């Protein structure tokens, strides 16, 4: 099955009606409607009602729709889940995940709601937001806590706050945390989504950060402005040299029986399973970027 | 192609109706109109002490037609100054032939209600007057709407005869040589009154800047001018020309503009020596921004850009992206400076811009035209004059002229504004016929007029996704719902002329309950 | 007391609810009334029905909101009104 690309997660405050029916025009891979930090306390209920009605009425097409709910320990978190899931929401982002238990609690709640509303149990998936040092350390357990977890994300703002430091443009204070999240996501077989970049006007800095995140192993980036979406997609678009090489590798792999220990050589180089996996990923990204790849189906 | 509309053959207060038959189907046969001859003697003086004296000397009387131009835009003092004086003098039954009317002209509503003004010819109408005409027929007869090219044509053809033309000039010498580029009230090109001056029986210049004879930069020369009056100020400088018009920051508009630029590139028209025109607002102007990147990358230099000229187009001229600008109306201070100082920024009359019944116009030399729209329907007809609730709130401008002239006409618009769908089943009024419109680009998709299979093929080849205009409509209505129909009476409150003088649509009075 | 929800921003609607009177009374102010007035009123009434509200005076000041926004704002305002009553 073709894997869903999650190169971009466009954050939109759920309390602004306009965002609820316009955000998909920027064609991010995912939209994340925010009920948490972007929504003031006295608008929490109104924003939830808006999002519920939007989910019932609006066709978001190919875009994967997430909601960032309030943490379950707040007054709003559980009600968010109880309202959104019956309205059709399939993807939740759980903020401030620190342990396996946070995920298991949500899992129990989701299972109960799914059963009550005749929704396939386990069909609602979860992205866990790792935003504290404790969360970083526990990120592998979090990612493996439930089959519902399809991705984990890193949030730098709360992380540095908890650590008692400041976020810098160089980002050295985040290096270990980001790497850990990306590695653990890889081990658990889920996507890793990088933190937001708040300075919308600093295109150059943003590009640098996305490139470094991609090199660390992140599958995508959280975006806070439509203009960032295209930049990320560009960075995640493989170049034609890599695409051609990947096509060769996939074709060679198809012609050989690698499972039985067959050896493949492309352009004088030995090809093994990780190389094939990387080639597949490159072609997925190429297709996601709208590049026509003749003959090879993935 | 004719439209599936039927019009009465005669309309009271307008005259005989020649129905629209296609963009270039109706050709003229008569001779050009000529105003009365004049004479002058050495030692003549044209400067008159005040407006009343100028009006009296010009022979103002009941039933006359007088003309104005809208280059002073929302800052204009001239229309109200002249009309207040005419009302004060007890004159009635005046027909105003304006190049357009803006929000600055709302006081006209009283002159209409009092019978001072009983006829209105304009490109556009907005605000209270537009609403009052659409719902009450305050004029008691239809407003005649003409395109910028159509107005020049009607004047040259003598279909509308101007008794007195009033021209605001920011610089004028004692014999009447004038321009709009010097002085405190500088507004740029004098494109519209260049026509009025040649065909009106009397021409009155109103200026706040009398300069020594001879003025060195002459937009309209003295041989057309009868009288000059000096006033404190011809307009509110803050509203005449704003600072440089910047490209929008609205992400939806930028997205539309970017897609439109991709369509232009894929269609093959963006090549060395191409010509281009775009509206000054929202997504239209932003298209230039993306074209600029492409032109840089491929080292393309265009021939000319035209239309309402903004500071952004001036930047493109100065940076060498286009060799010339052709300008009938200047939009901001930066563009005013440019038309004054840069010889490649060329002032042109409305006739040279867009009149279909002369020997050439710049609209017909266009490769690419970018238009905006209030509504566009499944026949690609565009409305930019009336709102979906039937109120008059816009203008024809040069849209029908340039759409007919350009090799490729692209409409850029959002799919909806405050729930009101832009893509509709049938436009409230047809202003620019679908025969002349090629592509629609919204934030949700791209539709090609089935008449342009060549463009469709080019976009397909470039891998640009398109959808039929019918599917575009369905997509929009999924969000907005299908609006209820507005009820109209059978009273005609506006006649929309196509640029060739045929009637393309009628505006009926809205039924109010 | 009236319970309110929404804003006067473009594409939004301001709904205020008073749980009084007999039946559902909807007073709509909107530039879009001739085009969408009927649909806006239906959206408000449907929401009341969904929430089992039988008597209410509802002021709707619309600024070009889509139906889902009308419904959501009505829902939140009714919720707030019910909270006041209880």
Characterization of this structure:
The complex is a heterotrimer of chains A (298), B (513) and C (86). Chain A has twelve helices and ten strands. By secondary structure, chain A is α/β, with parallel strands linked by helices. Chain A has an eight-stranded parallel beta barrel with strand order 1-2-3-4-5-6-7-8. A two-stranded antiparallel sheet of chain A has the order 9-10. In chain A, helix 3 (77-84) links the parallel strand 3 and strand 4 (91-94). Chain A starts with 7 loop residues before the first strand and ends in a 10-residue tail after the last helix. The mean pLDDT of chain A is 91. Chain B is α/β, with parallel strands linked by helices and 513 residues long. In chain B, helix 10 packs across helix 11. Chain C contains two helices and four strands, in the order βββαβα. Helix content of chain C is 43%, strand content 28%. With 86 residues, chain C is α+β, with helices and mostly antiparallel strands. Chain C has a four-stranded mixed sheet. Chain C has one domain: Ribosomal Protein S5, domain 2 (2-Layer Sandwich). Chain C is globular, with a radius of gyration of 12 Å. Chains A and C meet through helix 1 and helix 2 of A and helix 2 of C. Chain A: Keywords: Lyase, Magnesium, Metal-binding. Chain A: Its cofactor is Mg(2+). Chain A: It comes from Fusibacter ferrireducens. Chain A: It holds the Pfam family HpcH_HpaI.
Topology order of chain C in helix (H) and strand (E) letters: EEEHEH
Oligomeric status of the shown chains?
heterotrimer
Low-confidence stretches of chain C: none
What percentage of residues of chain B falls in helices of 4 or more residues? Answer: 25-40%
Structural class of chain B, by secondary structure, is alpha/beta
CATH architecture of chain C: 2-Layer Sandwich
User: Radius of gyration of chain C, Cα only, in angstroms?
Assistant: 12 Å
Largest sheet of chain B: 10 strands, mixed
Q: How many domain modules of chain C?
A: 1
Q: Biggest protein-protein interface?
A: A-C, 15 and 17 residues
Spatial strand sequence of the major β-sheet of chain C: 1-2-4-3
Average pLDDT over all residues of chain C: 95
Main beta sheet strand tally, sense and closure of chain C: 4 strands, mixed
CATH class of the largest domain in chain B: Alpha Beta
Number of domains of chain B: 2
Question: Largest sheet of chain B, order of strands side by side?
Answer: 3-13-12-9-4-5-6-8-28-29
User: How is the CATH topology of chain C named?
Assistant: Ribosomal Protein S5, domain 2
Protein name (chain B): Citrate lyase alpha chain
Pfam families (chain B): CitF
GO molecular function, one term (chain B): citrate (pro-3S)-lyase activity
EC number (chain B): 2.8.3.10, 4.1.3.6
């Amino acid at each position: 099955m073709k894997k869903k690309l999650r190169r971009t997660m466009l954050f939109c405050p759920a309390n602004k009606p306009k965002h609820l029916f316009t955000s998909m025009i920027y064609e991010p891979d995912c939209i994340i409607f925010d009920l948490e930090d972007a929504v003031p306390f006295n608008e929490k209920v109104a924003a939830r009602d808006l999002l519920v009605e939007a989910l019932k009425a609006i066709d978001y097409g190919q875009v994967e729709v997430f909601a960032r709910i309030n943490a379950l320990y707040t007054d709003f978190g559980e009600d968010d889940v109880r309202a959104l899931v019956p309205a059709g929401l399939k993807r939740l982002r759980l903020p401030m995940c620190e342990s396996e238990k946070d995920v298991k609690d949500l899992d129990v709640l989701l299972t109960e709601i799914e059963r009550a509303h005749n929704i396939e149990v386990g069909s609602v998936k979860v992205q866990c937001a790792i935003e504290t040092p404790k969360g970083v350390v526990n990120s592998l357990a979090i990612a493996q806590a439930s089959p519902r977890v399809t991705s984990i994300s890193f949030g730098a703002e709360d992380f540095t706050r908890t650590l008692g430091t400041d976020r810098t443009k160089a980002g050295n204070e985040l290096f270990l945390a980001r790497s850990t999240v990306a590695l653990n996501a890889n081990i658990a077989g889920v996507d890793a989504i990088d933190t937001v970049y708040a300075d919308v006007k600093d295109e150059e800095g943003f590009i640098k950060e996305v490139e470094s995140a991609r090199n660390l192993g992140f599958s995508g980036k959280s975006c806070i402005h439509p203009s960032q979406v295209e930049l990320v997609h560009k960075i995640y678009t493989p170049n034609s040299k890599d695409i051609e090489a990947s096509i060769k590798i996939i074709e060679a792999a198809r012609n050989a029986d690698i499972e039985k220990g067959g050896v493949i050589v492309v352009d004088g180089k030995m090809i093994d399973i990780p190389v094939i996996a990387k080639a597949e990923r490159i072609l997925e990204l190429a297709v996601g970027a709208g590049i026509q790849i003749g003959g090879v189906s993935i | 192609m004719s439209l599936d509309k039927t019009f009465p053959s005669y309309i009271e207060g307008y005259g005989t109706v020649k129905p629209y038959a296609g963009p270039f189907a109706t050709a003229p046969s008569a001779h050009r109109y000529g105003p009365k001859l004049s004479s002058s003697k050495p030692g003549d003086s044209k400067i008159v002490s005040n407006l009343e004296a100028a009006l009296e000397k010009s022979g103002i009387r009941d039933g006359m037609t007088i003309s104005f131009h809208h280059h002073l835009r929302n800052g204009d003092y001239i229309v109200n100054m002249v009309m207040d004086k005419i009302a004060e003098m007890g004159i009635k039954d005046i027909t105003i032939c304006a190049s357009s009317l803006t929000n600055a002209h709302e006081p006209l509503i009283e002159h209409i209600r009092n019978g001072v003004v009983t006829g209105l010819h304009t490109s556009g109408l907005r605000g209270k007057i537009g609403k009052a005409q659409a719902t009450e027929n305050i004029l008691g007869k239809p407003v005649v709407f003409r395109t910028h090219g159509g107005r020049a044509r009607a004047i040259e053809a003598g279909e509308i005869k101007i008794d007195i033309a009033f021209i605001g000039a920011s610089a004028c010498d004692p014999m009447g040589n004038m321009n709009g580029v010097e002085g405190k009230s500088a507004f740029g090109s004098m494109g519209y009154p260049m026509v009025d001056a040649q065909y009106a029986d009397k021409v009155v210049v109103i200026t706040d800047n009398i300069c020594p004879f001879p003025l060195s930069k002459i937009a309209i020369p003295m041989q057309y001018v009868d009288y000059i009056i000096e006033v404190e100020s011809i307009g509110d400088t803050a509203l005449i020309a704003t600072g440089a018009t910047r490209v929008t920051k609205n992400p939806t508009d930028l997205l539309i503009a970017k897609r439109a630029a991709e369509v232009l590139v894929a269609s093959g028209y963006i090549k060395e020596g191409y010509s281009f025109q775009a509206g000054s607002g929202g997504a239209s102007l932003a298209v230039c921004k993306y074209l600029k990147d492409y032109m840089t990358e491929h080292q393309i230099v265009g021939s000319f850009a035209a239309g309402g000229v903004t500071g952004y187009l001036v930047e493109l001229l100065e940076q060498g992206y286009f060799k010339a600008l052709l300008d009938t109306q200047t939009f901001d201070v930066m563009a005013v400076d440019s038309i004054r100082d840069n010889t490649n920024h060329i002032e042109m009359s409305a006739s040279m811009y867009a009149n279909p019944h002369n020997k050439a116009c710049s609209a017909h030399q266009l490769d690419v035209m970018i238009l905006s729209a209030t509504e566009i329907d499944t026949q690609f007809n565009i409305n930019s004059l009336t709102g979906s609730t039937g109120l008059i709130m816009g203008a024809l401008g040069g849209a029908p002229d340039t759409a007919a002239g350009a090799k490729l006409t692209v409409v850029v618009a959002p799919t909806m504004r405050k729930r009101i769908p832009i893509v509709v089943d049938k436009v409230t009024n047809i202003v620019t016929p679908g025969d002349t419109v090629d592509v629609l680009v919204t934030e949700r998709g791209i539709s090609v007029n089935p008449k342009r299979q060549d463009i469709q093929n080019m976009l397909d080849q470039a891998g640009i996704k398109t959808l039929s205009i019918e599917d575009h409509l369905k997509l929009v209505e999924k969000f907005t719902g299908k609006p209820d129909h507005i009820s109209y009476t059978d009273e005609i409150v506006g006649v929309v002329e196509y640029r060739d003088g045929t009637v393309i649509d009628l505006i009926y009075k809205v039924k109010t309950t | 007391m009236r319970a309110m929800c929404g804003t006067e921003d473009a594409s939004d609607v301001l709904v205020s609810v008073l749980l009084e009177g007999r039946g559902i009374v909807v007073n709509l102010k909107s530039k879009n009334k001739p085009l969408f007035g009927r649909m806006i009123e239906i959206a408000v009434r449907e929401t009341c029905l969904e929430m089992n509200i039988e008597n209410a005076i509802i002021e709707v000041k619309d600024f070009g909101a889509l139906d889902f926004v009308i419904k959501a704002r009505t829902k939140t305002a009714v919720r707030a009104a019910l909270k006041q009553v209880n």
